[in-house]
Amino acid sequence: MLEVRGLCSGYGRARVLFDVDVAVRAGQVACVMGRNGVGKTTLLNTVMGLIPAVGGSVVFDGVDVTRAPTHVRVRSGMGYAPQGHETFAPLTVLENLKVAADGLPRSGEAIEEQLELFPRLRPLLNRRAGLLSGGQAQQLAIARALVAGPRLLVLDEPTEGIQPSIVAEIVEVIGQVAARGVAVLLVEQYLDVALGLADTVTVLDAGRVVHSGQAADLSREEAARLLAV
Ligand SMILES: Nc1ncnc2c1ncn2[C@@H]1O[C@H](COP(=O)(O)OP(=O)(O)OP(=O)(O)O)[C@@H](O)[C@H]1O
Ligand SMILES: [Mg+2]
């Protein structure tokens, strides 16, 4: 579903990613790991077109989107929940979902599906997103990314700084989404969450891939070693 080849990008003259390859199949979770500042968010932002690629290619469902603007990628089926559970703070939970569902043929049903996936959001529909807890806001951010029915879901540290009970719910939802056939590209720092969900693992260090393979072939010890500071 997603094939990233030889990707290079950065900020101005500062190169951050060097020749990064990563692929995600439909119904699978590809986990990208690595210490703080190695370029995980830069990778996802480049995949989504928020940062231009300086080299390499991003192919989504057989279509080269390397130069496509972000809204075109989103419209073609790429959903993104960026790091830091961003939502529209002054809008209510329902308004946030409506904005994300705007223009969909069956937006009411699409929103209802998200509320079934995230039942905690239902009693909060009229609350302003800026007043949600971190975990609630993260659920809303994922629901917003899912509302248009993407074939690829891109998630940047969805469990960062969130209480364990909500982490478990988010992990459950990611598993369900993948089980429905959606490809998931997940940046995750927590080893247990990552190894629990991942089909494949890619480890970055200083903007380069230092490990790539099936999650089942990666022991906890080896993963911990790759991520050690
Ligand atoms: N807007 C920016 N302008 C310039 N440099 C940036 C910018 N954003 C990130 N960087 C730099 O790019 C490198 C990679 O940052 P990035 O945010 O991709 O790392 P990360 O792996 O997502 O880190 P974290 O685990 O803390 O989220 C870092 O050296 C960072 O300082
Ligand atoms: Mg990051």
From TrEMBL:
One of its GO terms (biological process) is L-amino acid transport. Residues 2-229 form the ABC transporter domain. Pfam families: ABC_tran (PF00005). GO terms for molecular function: ATP binding; ATP hydrolysis activity; branched-chain amino acid transmembrane transporter activity. This is Urea ABC transporter ATP-binding protein. Keywords: Amino-acid transport, ATP-binding, Nucleotide-binding, Transport. Gene3D superfamilies: P-loop containing nucleotide triphosphate hydrolases (3.40.50.300). Belongs to the ABC transporter superfamily.
